[in-house]
Write a structure and sequence with these properties.
It is built from nine helices and eleven strands. The chain has 248 residues and is an alpha/beta fold. It folds into two domains: 113 residues, Rossmann fold (3-Layer(aba) Sandwich), CATH 3.40.50.10090; 124 residues, Rossmann fold (3-Layer(aba) Sandwich), CATH 3.40.50. The strands form two sheets. It has a six-stranded mixed β-sheet. A five-stranded parallel β-sheet has the order 2-1-9-10-11, sandwiched between helices. The chain is elongated. The termini are close together.
Length: 248
């Protein structure tokens, strides 16, 4: 069966030059976007129950844009004025740039990793005497706190926001040729919303090994997988699969 429709389990890209839009035009397919999961902030009273005292920390580790948003949201709700001396350790450049929504960039001490948390570790090691706050989701990868413990820094991890399953009931009778997933949480959402889901002719595209395992654990078939050495992005993998499928 030829590929005509794709549902990507993420919000629609806000940038005009997204590779998904290029893929849609090039392959003449319809691509829809829908968040299978969303983020909800934790209340300030829950942060207090986690024994977080902002005034005791001299540095904050920010692993995502959500971490940035909810760090400053909670600080505001708790009426804590973040001092100019606060050091910000950002996992990647996009996170660091997003920080500009809250602070005057050139006046702050900001340290930036290349892409993954491991890239940020050498910078954190240089400031081992700081007391770090790690605002996170309830789905934080164990690698991050485990690594911080291994390098011997003082840190406090606290859940500032949670990943919540979205209501997809309006999609009950909608069919797509390909469903695209980026996390095990997306698969959990699929089965939470549609407990009797059967794959049949639907193709499933997944990003990352943990997502592959989540799909296989549900007895489903993985048709498109990324990243690979040949196809480092999901759009590249989809493009190749659609080309090969639609020419038959």
């Amino acid at each position: 069966m030829k590929i005509k429709t794709i549902l990507v389990s993420q919000p629609e890209p806000k940038i005009e030059n997204s590779p998904y839009f290029d893929l849609e035009e090039k392959q003449k397919v319809k691509i829809d976007f829908r968040s299978f999961i969303h983020v909800e902030g934790v209340a300030a009273k829950e942060i207090r129950l986690q024994k977080v005292d902002f005034s005791t920390y001299s540095a904050v580790i920010l692993t995502s844009r959500n971490a940035v948003d909810h760090f400053f949201r909670i600080a505001k709700e708790m009426r804590f004025k973040v001092p100019d001396s606060m050091k910000y350790f950002c996992q990647s450049e996009p996170v660091a740039l997003y920080l500009q929504n809250y602070v005057v960039y050139r006046k702050r001490k900001i340290y930036v990793g290349k892409r993954n948390f491991v890239d940020l570790v050498p910078l954190i090691k240089k400031y081992k005497n700081e007391k770090f706050l790690l605002p996170s989701s309830d789905k934080l990868k164990p690698l991050i706190p485990n690594t911080l413990e291994e390098i011997g820094v003082q840190f406090k991890q606290a859940v500032f926001y949670k990943t919540v399953i979205s209501d997809l009931s309006d999609l009950a009778n909608v069919y797509y040729d390909i469903l695209v997933f980026f996390s095990p949480s997306g698969i959990d959402s699929l089965f939470h919303n549609f407990p009797n889901f059967k794959q049949n002719d639907t193709r499933i595209a997944v990003f990352g090994n943990t997502t592959v395992k989540a799909v296989e654990n549900k007895g489903l078939r993985v048709d498109v997988a990324a990243p690979t050495a040949e196809m480092p992005s999901m759009t590249m993998a989809l493009n190749k699969y659609i080309q090969e499928t639609n020419k038959k």
